[in-house]
Design a protein that fits this description.
Largest sheet: 8 strands, mixed
Number of strands: 15
Strand content: 5-15%
Structural class: alpha+beta
Order of helices and strands: EHEHHEEEHEEEEEEEEHEHHHHEHH
Shape: globular
Length: 442
């Protein structure tokens, strides 16, 4: 079916207050024209300049058809630039810290209340003709085209079931071909209403978290930058909702569980999350932003590269770092060193109270001060088995699946999409078949 329209286009940049209230809070995509044209990156990032100044950085590669199961080996930027015009690969990895000094943070996100210390950046470069699979990202995202052009299909999470999210080989990546749908195998795709977006050089797209999207890059030299973040006003809204309305979980009846054919359904959780955003959008307060005009290099970005961490000393802060932050920590379920639990903190069966989920003591629950016995070190074998952190994570996810099967709880639609996204089909099946620590029904 044809698209239901195009993403709204703004010919000018807007301030962070308007950007949040009119677009982010409503999970409404928007294009802002020409954002990157004034960046130093737009003028400087030729192949020659990048090779000379940043060619030594070793970055990850992917194939042009976005094959997640056959990833090419990482290369130095210099080696990539020698072959990228003919090879079946493109560069996709975190933007190296020195390059961030040549990118101006867009005005619309220069606000501590919108995003703070949660930024993650990704840099794409290719010779064009590349495409992604239809997938979601669990964070808010602004995608900016520095050089080249992109065409994008966007689908609301409300249609997660119709894009067969529960039949995915990798959770969060739809099994359908977005440009040539096989309606015999995927008939519900006919129900999907979708938008299209065309990005010219310099344009920026706000892509709401959990929205399905497919990206095609036109032939020719391509550079793009994505910045992902979590929104602090969301945290405040959740705290206010829990504090004022006394949110709690509810035990489902056996009849309700029997009538629901989508237990452990990723699609259902995405749909419920999206509906919740629509339900609360009018009650979200307009942010007041005091900080403006900052470069990417002044912000903190997460990284999994140890030798980069010394360069990531940005000025952003997290909501748990500032004791004066206006948050209801008890309503957020904060415990221990600021860990957050979004499940019902008044239900002792909720994951909040399970030590293997790592939330620590809940409000009103004191730490045990008994002296712990010294434990014998665990036999780590040859190091080929799963790490203790991984075992703890999947044990917690397995517990959450049983808990969410029995209780309606806001934490289910907040936590499970985050925990399960990008898990392979085999990993998801393994988790569902694991023994569960959830107490058996009486």
């Amino acid at each position: 079916r044809p698209p239901d329209g195009e993403v709204e286009v703004l010919p000018y940049m807007i301030g962070p207050e308007d950007f949040y209230q009119h677009y982010v809070a409503r999970h409404k995509p928007v294009i802002i024209k020409g954002v990157a044209k004034s960046w130093n990156a737009s003028k400087l990032w030729t192949d020659e300049y990048i090779t000379k100044n940043y060619g030594h950085f070793r970055l990850n590669m992917e194939t042009r058809d976005d094959d997640k199961f056959n990833l090419p080996a990482a290369k130095t930027v210099g080696d990539f630039l020698k072959v990228y015009k003919t090879a079946n690969l493109y560069l996709v990895d975190e933007l190296p810290p020195p390059m961030r000094k040549e990118v101006t943070m867009p005005l619309c996100v220069r606000c501590d209340e919108i995003a703070s210390r949660f930024f993650v950046s990704y840099f794409w470069m290719s010779n064009g003709g590349t495409s992604s699979q239809l997938h979601i990202d669990t964070d808010e995202n602004i995608l900016t085209v520095i050089h080249g052009r992109k065409d994008i299909i966007l689908i609301s999470p409300l249609y997660s079931g119709d894009v067969y999210a529960d039949q995915a080989r990798i959770v969060g990546v739809s099994p359908i071909n977005a440009t040539s749908v096989d309606l015999r195998h995927f008939p519900r795709v006919a129900n999907v209403r979708y938008l299209t977006a065309h990005l010219d050089e310099g344009d920026m797209l706000y892509l709401p978290q959990m929205w399905w999207h497919y990206v095609y890059s036109s032939p020719g030299r391509q550079q793009a930058l994505a910045m992902w973040w979590k929104s602090i006003p969301f945290q405040k809204t959740f705290a206010k909702e829990r504090g004022e309305q006394g949110l709690s979980s509810r035990l489902k009846t056996p009849e309700e569980r029997a009538q629901d054919p989508r237990n452990s359904s990723f699609a259902r959780w995405l749909e419920q999350y999206s509906q919740w955003v629509l339900d609360i959008e009018d009650g979200i307060e307009r942010p007041t932003c005091s900080n403006q005009v900052k470069l990417m290099s002044e912000y903190s970005f997460e990284t999994d590269k140890p030798d980069w961490r010394k360069d990531l000393t940005g000025s952003g802060r997290s909501i748990t770092d500032d004791p004066d932050e206006d948050l209801d920590k008890e309503a957020l379920g904060m415990a221990g060193e600021g860990t957050r639990c979004y499940f019902d903190i008044h239900n002792e069966k909720s994951p909040c109270f399970q030590k293997f989920c790592g939330f620590g003591p809940m409000p009103g629950e004191e730490e045990e001060e008994e002296e712990e016995e010294e434990e014998e070190p665990e036999d780590e074998g040859d190091g080929s088995g799963p790490s203790s952190d991984f075992v703890q994570e999947v044990t917690c996810v397995r517990y959450m699946l049983d808990y969410c099967d029995r209780y309606e709880d806001r934490g289910c639609v907040i936590e499970l999409p985050q925990m399960l996204n990008k898990k392979s089909e085999d990993e998801f099946l393994t988790i569902k078949k694991m023994p569960s620590k959830f107490p058996k029904d009486d």
